[in-house]
Amino acid sequence: MLANGITLGIKKEGTSPYIILKGLKEVPELGVDPEKVDNTTLEDKMKHSELGIGDPGDLAYKFKWENEGENSTYRTLRNVSDTGETVSFEQTFPDGTKFHFDAQCSVKVGGGGVNAAIEFTLNLGLQTDIEVVDPA
Predict the structure, then answer these.
(1) How many C-beta neighbours within 10 Å does residue 42 have?
(2) What are the boundaries of each domain within the chain?
(3) Who contacts 23 (Cβ-Cβ below 8 Å, separation ≥6)?
(4) 130 and 101 Cβ atoms separated by less than 8 Å
(5) What is the separation of C-alpha 123 from the centre of its chain, rounded to a whole number of angstroms?
(6) How far is residue 74's CA from residue 78's CA, in Å, rounded to a whole number?
(7) Which fold has domain 7-133?
(8) How far apart (Å, rounded) are the C-alpha atoms in residues 93 and 6?
(9) Residues 21 and 73 sit within 8 Å (Cβ to Cβ)
(10) Sign of the CA dihedral running 100, 94, 28, 14
């Protein structure tokens, strides 16, 4: 399956449905890498470890720059970032698999150069676990 067609939706508490954010160019890996916790005793001949809590890593989404209207993706996300509120996100794969999570966000405008498209990055700080919803 190609990544083409992945969408990212956002909604504030008490609203419905998710609003699809336009101009999505790149999505991060979703999931966790559990920390390996050393649990070796003095009697052991090799290291023993257990898996600890997970780290989702950096959740950074890249978007095409567009700021021509009050409902543009950049302004929508910048407004959420400015308030510091926690909002709900829904990432949907082309096969219908959905990932739900709540996060706080920050927005950063990328640099530019000759023949380079201007982008902005949405960085998320997870506030909930990521819930996976399989397609029907």
Answers:
(1) 4
(2) 7-133
(3) 63, 64, 65, 66, 73
(4) yes
(5) 7
(6) 6
(7) Factor Xa Inhibitor (4.10.410)
(8) 5
(9) yes
(10) negative
Within a 10 A sphere around the Cβ of 92, how many other Cβ atoms? 19
* Closest among 19, 24, 27, 5 to 87, alpha carbons compared: 19
Q: Which of 42, 38, 121, 112 is nearest to 81 (CA)?
A: 121
pTM equals 0.88
pLDDT value of residue 57: 84
Residue 105, pLDDT score? 96
Note the helical H segments in the chain: 73-83
Per-residue pLDDT of the chain (136 residues; tens, 9 = 90+): 999 999 999 999 888 899 999 999 999 999 988 999 999 999 999 999 999 998 888 899 999 999 999 999 999 999 999 999 999 999 999 999 999 999 999 999 999 889 999 999 999 999 999 999 999 8
